[in-house]
Amino acid sequence: MTLTLLPLGTGNAFSAERHSCCNALVHDEDGARAVLLIDCPHPLRKVLRDAAQVQGFALDIADVTACALTHLHADHASGVEGFLWFSRFVLGTKGTLALHDDVRARLWDGHLAGGMEQLLGEDGTTTHLTLDDVAACVRLTEQAPVRLGPFSVELRRTRHHIPTFALRVRAGGASVAFSADTAFDPSLIAWLLEADLAVHEAGHGYGHTPLEALAALPEADRAHMRLTHLGDEVDRAALPIAPLEEGRAIVVDELKGKGAPRATVQHEQR
């Protein structure tokens, strides 16, 4: 049984060199594979293919158990339409989306409906669609973990421009946490560091976390983290925390017992 983190995209919204920030968690047990997408940028099939080829295996939408959305900014959610249409027209099923109610509230009317709300039939009739017609939605909450196949998913709200949620995912005996987009938040970092591996953004501008703030964290905490959502101008070789690299998988089970066993960042009152 293994849990592997496969970085699919590590760039920010303006990157010309890398795919937008997203990841895949791959759980293998007794020859069975489950894949949890963390966010869903366009072009999703190429994003999956490019990363998987580095590892020497195939990965496509048909392999995806579910897609967990942290928020609706385009660099994290622009591939949802393609994910759902491919699932419907090619696979003959509904793609599974896992999301908080506050993300779902704007997903259809504010993001997808313009390209998905109706289909023209060969007889000229129009079929009107809703989100539930094209997606199997699983409700994620901040109150309790939710099961998605072999994955258990927990949420925590972040400090960002629109409703955004960090994720902590466990499968088997290993766990990975994702900050999603967020302003610097020591209490969130402490929550993330309870996982075996914490993936944190280092984005640009207000509503994101500056590299300087992460560089000031204790060494044990920095060793327990990987960076993503980086601009093209960032010198990745000089970073104070190792960055994720697209297609370079991390076997999370091998990290258990390494790095910081508990967060040393102090919680603060929110």
Strands, helices and their partners?
Elements: E1 2-9, E2 22-29, E3 32-38, H1 44-55, E4 64-68, H2 74-77, H3 80-89, E5 95-100, H4 101-116, E6 118-120, E7 126-128, H5 131-134, E8 135-140, E9 146-148, E10 151-157, E11 165-171, E12 174-178, H6 186-192, E13 197-201, H7 211-215, H8 219-223, E14 225-228, E15 250-251
Parallel strand pairs: 3-4, 4-5, 5-8, 12-13, 13-14
Antiparallel strand pairs: 1-2, 1-15, 2-3, 6-7, 9-10, 10-11, 11-12
Report on this model:
With 270 residues, the chain is an alpha/beta fold. The chain has a single domain, classed as Metallo-beta-lactamase, Chain A (4-Layer Sandwich), CATH 3.60.15.10. 23% of the residues lie in helices and 29% in strands. It has eight helices and 15 strands. The chain has a seven-stranded mixed β-sheet with strand order 8-5-4-3-2-1-15. A six-stranded mixed β-sheet has the order 9-10-11-12-13-14. It has a two-stranded antiparallel ribbon with strand order 6-7. The longest helix has 16 residues, at 101-116. Mean pLDDT is 92; it is low at 259-270.
Summarize the structure in short.
The longest helix has 16 residues, at 101-116. The chain has one domain (2-255): Ribonuclease Z/Hydroxyacylglutathione hydrolase-like (Metallo-beta-lactamase, Chain A, 4-Layer Sandwich).
Strand order of the largest sheet: 8-5-4-3-2-1-15
What is the end-to-end distance? 38 Å
Q: Write down the Rg.
A: 18 Å
Approximate shape: globular
Mean pLDDT, all residues: 92
Q: Kindly state the number of beta strands.
A: 15
- CATH architecture verdict: 4-Layer Sandwich
Helix proportion of residues, in percent?
10-25%
User: Any idea of the CATH class?
Assistant: Alpha Beta
Give the number of helices. Answer: 8
Following the backbone from N to C, one meets helices and strands in this order, namely: EEEHEHHEHEEHEEEEEHEHHEE
Fraction of residues in β-strands: 25-35%
Tell me the structural class: alpha/beta
Largest sheet: 7 strands, mixed
CATH superfamily descriptor: Ribonuclease Z/Hydroxyacylglutathione hydrolase-like
Query: What is the number of domains?
Result: 1
CATH overall fold name: Metallo-beta-lactamase, Chain A
Stretches where pLDDT falls below 50 for ≥5 residues? 259-270
